[in-house]
Each structure stands twice: as structure tokens, then as C-alpha cells.
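Chapter summary example.
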Amino acid sequence: MRFMFVGDSMTIGHAGDFTWRYRMWQHLNASFGGPYRIVGPRTEVYDLLAEAPVSHAYGAPDFPPAARRHLAGWGEGWQHLTPLIRDAVSTYRADLLLISLGLIDLGFYTNSAQTADRARLFLAEARAANPRIRAVLLPVIPNVRADTDPAFAAEVARFNELLAKAVADLDQAGSPLLLASRPPSYDIRRDTYDGTHPAPSGEHKLAGAFADAMYEAWGLGARYEART
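The structure predicted for these 228 residues follows.
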């Protein structure tokens, strides 16, 4: 099975981060029980000084280059990655997408309804490349702006409702979709380093949300167990 991570700054990470992708790689190694690959067109993390995704300085030296692949970008959301996903799925023959998107779109580009429409288009584009693609989608998780801006918090809540509806509407037996649960104990004061981007504990919780969804619905892997 070929996994592709799709996301924004919380997924790509910056220089020095472990990233939740690393935590998922650890989990897959320990629990998947069969051959798999992590695929995608990018391998870098974001360099805050260069203000560009040009760094390879991951926090974990044992994270192999082949497992660092992804389709994620700092400041990129549904609207940025939708035009790329068909080619990425086709070129890298992805079987399963692990998607964490929406915060950037809602924060800067589109309202909740427009963002949900973009998510639907994204899934259609992915299926155009692989009609049997699977996907696990994470709702927008707690973040500092939603904590301090009631209007934005309402848009996040509305988008998450619309995303759940999209997953229910578009789920197919031959191309199943899952909505992962927002980690119930996720706390922006403990699990992020700036109110938005995950600290190590947050990385584990994000990886766990995807891993537990795959295990509970499809029997893939096992329940998530945090590893150092």
C-alpha cells in the first residue's frame, strides 16, 4: 500500500520538527504488517529563515529520505493542492491519502462553504487519477485563532460539519472515505508550540487520529501507541 500525506504547515513542519509524518512512519513500521511505501513529490520541511520549503533538517535523524515524501506546504490549503492532486496520485500511484487541510483556506482565502466545495473537487481529482483511492480526512483541529476569534471559530465548526457531510456523501465501496476524529484531548497550550503547529505531543495525537481511524474502520495496522 502506498500512503501519501497531504496537508499544510502542520503537516510539512519546519526545520527541527519531528512532524506527525515521522510519528506515523514509526507507527506503520511497528504495526502495518505488510509492505507499504510513503510517496509524494516533496521531501522538504519549511525553513523559517529562508521563508521557503528548502530544509532537510528533520528533528529525527532516523527518518529515512524515502519515508519523508509528502504533498504538503507551508501556507497551502485545499485551493493550492487541488490542482496538484491528480498528477501526484497518478505519478506516485498513491493508494491512500492522509489529509489535514482547511485552516489556511478558512483563514485567508475561502469561507466554510467554498472550502467544503474545494474539498469535494479535490476528492474528485484524486479519484480521476485512481478510482479506487482511499482517503482519511482530519477536520480542522483546535488552533489559537479559533480560540480568540468567535466568528472564525464558527466558520471552522461549520466547515467541519460540511466536511463530514462531504465524506458521507462521497464515500463509495470501491473508494472509501473516512473522517478521522479530532483528538479529544488536544490542547493548544500543551500540544502546540505557538497555538497552531504541533509540538511533539501534538504530533503523536495527530498521527494517532489517522492511525486509529484506519484501524477501526478498515483493520489496517493497530491502535496508535506513542513511541519516542
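To summarize the output: The chain has one domain: 2-218.
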